[in-house]
Design a protein that fits this description.
Radius of gyration of chain C: 22 Å
CATH superfamily of the domain at 2-244 in chain C: P-loop containing nucleotide triphosphate hydrolases
CATH architecture of the domain at 2-244 in chain C: 3-Layer(aba) Sandwich
Helix content of chain C: 25-40%
Shape of chain C: globular
Strand content of chain C: 15-25%
Shape of chain A: globular
Largest sheet of chain C: 8 strands, mixed
Low-confidence stretches of chain C: 1-13, 37-42
Structural class of chain A: mainly alpha
Chains: A mainly alpha (317), B mainly alpha (295), C alpha/beta (350)
Number of strands of chain C: 12
Strand order of the largest sheet of chain C: 6-7-8-3-9-10-12-11
Oligomer: heterotrimer
């Protein structure tokens, strides 16, 4: 197993490198002089010269990449133009909030998703299946940012039960797991959970239907195994893949949170990205994307290795 | 020749042969959900194309006096927006841009992605591995993040949105195309074609494309709903269409402040995105079912 | 009413090498497949699919090739067809090396064709029957109308009425009919040599009989030469003039069909024949004549490849690989027992 993990790490390294190259090139993709992209407008000539030397903008591209990569590996992601603070610390603060939101949303989505998926898979092609399946189609078709707005309309504007924006009562930048803050996470988490719910329910439905249709399940039933026993058997067989999908969904939510966080003004990485885009704060943009992408790559790796560990039938390598 | 007489085959009369797509079409027609979805799509598309003839008012002409009118207000069948423009008109015209920035990337990605995928799949070997690994790098980003990153770097605008979304979808389509092509490449009839001395181009043109583009096309149609949501999402964030152009995502953004005063009106543009997206999804599902039976 | 134009000319007039030259000559054919097990593989495992094969196919005959799966018969066919490139070896067609200036690959392709096993993937599901058959000729420059006309003609000759079958799609025809179309496709370029790789293996017995008879008729009508590959010994006996038995990438025995079947000289051939279930109640097959699992073409045993399963095995067999020895009447066997000079202990006793 360890060997497999090592193999996967080796396999993933070129991809991680490719991701870093892509992030590096982003700044150069932007129209205009890359230097102005990373400096505030009012920088003095001396500051510009200093920055130019530090980043090596006058040197050929591959060397610039090397300089940049070396800095990144040491934890220096540059400085945010808008705030002047190191990008890494800005991202660090925001990542926690996003992780919490994404995790809660994934859990909600997973719970309901597996429920609907099970129902649909067990009672395949029945009316129940059709209802449960429609829920999953809805989940993947709804524009989640619109759903967020609708939720705010219903629960904040009209009913006034829940706050429309923010992570905490004092507009704080950090969400704490206490009663005060609980109300703030409900709407964004539920809104966000709709996507993984749709996908997980589809996956689970297919898994369950497949397992039940397998001949040895018929054999088990014929031998007198109770429905509860069959159920346990289905669960153990479906669990590895379902959990893997859940893990991946967490990654997607983390990386794709910008829209929901914008709707709910949730102080996470998505919100940070939004600000970065509008302030043309390219170091912040670049740094945030790099961190999020690496998270995703790492998450994929972990899910991959865990899935192989949990499910001995998967022949890998 | 009498020797051949006993090897002849007696065959009962059979109805005229139908081509592959014809039989897919016949099965599709009998699927009520897919047909309704197709109807909705056609309705929206037609309304968008014929907007100048169908819409009641001018999409850009507003009135500061009559801002934020509710649904059913005289002269504003679906209400008025924050600048007093008629919502129904804006929604119909909005369909033009929303559909355009939603569908164009998928179309472009279909062409480019299929090209890359078929090439990599047919050539095989090291070239294939290199191409697919490069594509893997793009898969290391969640789609939303990639779209945002590209749009953020390139800047706002319709063209930039289309470019960034195309880049998001090309890897996905290329992967599917490569997988199918690799499967088809080893089939006996492709070997037979090689045995008859045809060169690679001819084989790909006659034997491979016809069998690969079908499944890839179905996959691409399933991407349209995602694309529309993403494209409107970009506009929602201010990265796509710029005001005062009517576009559903942008409208959703500008109407946000109205959720307290005219919630129904504020929700309308998103409802349109939802309706279009789910119709494309259901139609694509129906298409896939119709095609699956055949193979 | 279709006008059937006779576009197929009899083949005899392109005979360049003359009566005595073999139509196909294969010498020292070798093909090894490397399999990498991942990036961190320490040893590259090599599959020695074909490991030194020589044979000739004379004009107008049918050479049957038999063997168990993994013996290399299909790979040999593909090497002959140049679908796979050989690692070593020489292939001569009517005296000329394939791929040389005297005989370009394109030219070779027109003279040698292959008929595949009927599988659902043997015909392109998107093309009509006539398009499938006419593809080859059109590739070689025949205009569409003429190619379609030839396709119709071929359909007629394989027993399928063109007016009913030409416009059909593969999913609208049965297995036996599909195989006839495979054959028609194989004949479309007017080849002299036809390689039939398990061409009837997937068919029901009654259909199989029809198709085999068809193949014999076509052979006479067009003056064809066949290489008939199969694992079914009865079918091979029925079809072949000469038979070649392959084992683990090498030729075990080759000779006239009747001789091989009545007096086999290689223990493997004996065992194969003995393992055919007998219909005769007085002559029932009592026990499995071959013991052990078929070894892997990845690690063939040293010496004679069959020695691990042979009932006549001795120390000699594990050390020295027996060459093909002439046992009389154009019959060759690669066994120490067949060679009086080999020193095999059993020979001394005889």
């Amino acid at each position: 197993m360890l060997l497999y993990a090592l193999k996967r790490i080796v396999y993933v390294t070129p991809v991680a490198l490719g991701v870093s190259i892509f992030c590096f090139l982003l700044v150069h993709l932007a129209p205009g002089d890359p230097l102005t992209a990373v400096m505030p407008i009012d920088a003095t000539a001396a500051q510009q010269a200093e920055m130019r030397a530090a980043y090596g903008f006058d040197k050929p591209l591959p060397i610039q990449y090397g300089i940049w990569l070396w800095k990144v590996l040491q934890g220096d992601l540059g400085q945010s133009i808008a705030s002047g603070r190191p990008v890494l610390s800005e991202v660090g603060r925001a990542v926690g909030n996003s992780l919490i939101l994404a995790s809660v949303a994934t859990l909600i989505g997973f719970t309901f998703g597996t429920f609907f998926g099970f129902v649909a898979g067990y009672f395949r092609d029945s009316a129940l299946d059709k209802i449960a399946s429609s829920v999953s189609v809805l989940g993947v078709s709804v524009p989640h940012y619109w759903l967020g707005i609708v939720m705010v309309i219903i629960f904040s504007a009209t009913l006034g039960w829940l706050p429309p924006t923010g992570a905490g009562p004092d507009g704080s930048g950090k969400w704490r797991p206490d009663m005060e803050h609980l109300r703030y996470i409900i709407l964004p988490a539920v809104t966000m959970s709709v996507i993984p719910m749709g996908i997980i329910s589809r996956t689970v439905r297919a898994l369950v239907a497949d397992i039940l249709a397998q001949e040895f399940v018929q054999a088990l039933r014929a031998k007198g195994l109770s429905e509860w026993g069959v159920f346990k058997h289905v669960v153990t067989n479906a669990a590895p893949t379902a959990l893997a999908v859940m893990g991946l969904q967490l990654g997607y939510l983390l990386g794709g949170s910008i829209l929901i966080e914008t709707v709910f003004a949730w102080p996470g990485t998505g919100f940070l990205l939004n600000a970065a885009i509008f302030q043309r704060d390219l170091p912040l943009l670049q740094g945030t994307i790099l961190v999020l992408a690496m998270f995703f790559v790492a998450l994929n790796l972990i899910v991959d290795v865990l899935q192989t560990a949990l499910d001995p039938r998967i022949q890998r390598g | 020749m009498s020797v051949l007489a006993d090897t002849r085959v007696v065959v009962p009369e059979v109805k005229a042969s139908r081509g592959y797509w014809a039989s897919v079409g016949m099965r599709l027609i009998r699927d009520p959900v897919a047909m309704v979805a197709l109807g909705v799509i056609l309705l929206i598309v037609l309304a968008a194309i014929l907007a100048p003839y169908v819409a009641p008012a001018d999409p850009y002409r507003g009135s500061m006096l009559r801002r934020l009118r509710p649904i059913g207000f005289p002269g504003y069948p679906l209400g008025g927006d924050e600048l007093g423009r008629d919502m129904l008109t804006r929604l119909i015209y909005g369909g033009r841009l929303s559909l355009f920035i939603g569908v164009m990337p998928v179309l472009l990605a279909f062409c480019i992605g299929s090209g890359i995928g078929v090439f990599a799949g047919y050539i095989g070997g090291r070239v294939n591995t290199i191409v697919m690994r490069v594509i893997d790098v793009f898969f290391a980003f969640p789609s939303v993040l990639l779209a945002i990153a590209l749009s953020g770097a390139l800047g706002a605008g319709v063209l930039n949105s289309i470019v960034s979304l195309t880049i998001v979808f090309v890897p996905q389509i290329a992967r599917v195309a490569e997988a199918v092509t690799t499967q088809i490449r080893t089939r006996d009839y492709v070997e037979a074609a090689r045995v008859s001395g045809a060169n690679a181009f001819t084989i790909v043109r006659v034997h491979v494309l016809g069998n690969v583009l079908g499944p890839v096309f179905v996959y691409a149609t399933s991407l349209i709903s995602v694309s529309m949501i993403l494209a409107s999402g970009l506009s929602f964030l201010g990265l796509g269409v710029k005001p005062p152009e009517p576009e559903w995502g942008l409208m959703l953004n500008t109407l946000r402040t109205a959720i307290y005063t005219q919630p129904m009106v504020a929700a309308l543009p998103g409802a349109m995105i939802f309706l279009t997206s789910i119709s494309f999804n259901l139609f694509s599902d129906g298409l896939r079912s119709a095609m699956e039976v055949k193979q | 009413m279709n006008v059937i134009v006779d576009t197929m000319k009899p083949v005899g007039d392109v005979d360049r090498g003359g009566e005595a030259t073999a139509l196909l000559s294969v010498r020292s054919l070798v093909k090894h497949f490397g399999s990498n097990s991942g990036l961190l593989a320490r040893t590259r495992t090599v599959v020695r699919a074909v490991d030194g094969v020589d044979f000739d196919v004379m004009k107008g005959e049918t050479l049957g090739i038999v063997g168990e799966s993994g013996c290399g018969k299909s790979t040999t066919a593909r090497l002959v067809m140049q679908i796979i490139k050989p690692d070593q070896g020489e292939i001569l067609f009517d005296g000329e090396a394939v791929g040389s200036s005297a005989l370009g690959l394109n030219d070779f392709r027109k003279q040698t064709q292959m008929v595949f096993q009927d599988s659902y993937a043997s015909l392109n599901p998107r093309l009509t029957v006539e398009d499938t058959i006419s593809f080859g000729p059109r590739v070689h420059g025949l205009p569409r109308k003429a190619a379609i006309s030839r396709a119709h003609d071929l359909l007629h000759r394989v027993g399928l009425e063109p007016s009913r079958f030409a416009g059909r799609y593969p999913h609208e025809i049965s297995g036996g009919q599909r195989q006839r179309i495979n054959i028609a496709r194989g004949l479309a370029l007017e080849p002299r040599l036809l390689i039939l790789d398990e061409a009837v293996s997937a068919l029901d017995k009654s259909v199989e009989a029809q198709v085999l008879n068809l193949l014999l008729d076509l052979k006479d009508e067009f003056g064809l030469t066949y290489i008939f590959i199969s694992h079914d010994l009865n079918v091979v006996r029925f079809m072949s003039d000469r038979v070649m038995v392959m084992y683990l990438g090498k030729v075990a025995e080759v000779g006239p069909s009747e001789q091989i079947f009545t007096t086999p000289r290689h223990p493997y051939t004996e065992a194969l024949l003995a393992s055919m279930p007998s219909m005769d109640p007085d002559n029932r097959t009592q026990e499995a004549p071959i013991s052990g699992d078929p070894p892997n073409p990845i690690n063939p045993p040293p010496g004679c490849r069959f020695h691990t399963r042979c009932r006549f095995v001795t120390a000699l067999c594990a050390h020295a690989e027996p060459p093909l020895h002439d046992v009389g009447g154009e019959h060759f066997a690669a066994c120490h027992l067949a060679n009086p000079a080999s020193g095999h202990p059993r020979l001394a006793a005889a």
